[in-house]
Amino acid sequence: MALDTRQRQTLLGLGRESIERGLAEQRLLPWPDPDIDPGLNIERASFATLKIEGILRGCCGSLHATRSIAEDVWHNAWASAFSDPRFPPLARAEYPNVDLQISVLSPLEPLPADSERKLLASLRPHTDGLVLELDATRATFLPAVWDQLPEAQMFVGQLKQKAGWPPGFWSPRIRAYRYTTESFGARD
Question: pTM of the prediction?
Answer without folding.
Answer: 0.92
